[in-house]
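User: My collaborator sent over this chain with a note saying "see what the structure looks like." That's all I know about it. Can you take a look?
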Amino acid sequence: MPQIVGLLGERIRNLRKENNITIEEIAFKAEIDAQNLRKYELGKQEMKVGMLKRIATAFSITTSELLNFDILKENEE
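Assistant: Without extra context I'll predict from the sequence alone. Here is the result:
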């Protein structure tokens, strides 16, 4: 499970950077605390399904797209 938490954090961070959005902007759109979002990005906190949906919606993507970790592997190559 911790590996998934880390991958999800990395995915969120990459999406933010690709879209040139701050943590505060995504936190506002997802209606969550920016400090909690930082913990998610760092892989220090697990999140519930409802939070996944809120963060995906904040990025205007589906939950499936948010959980697409294959994109991380493509970026490494």
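A starting point for your reply to your collaborator: Residues 29 and 58 are 5 Å apart (CA to CA).
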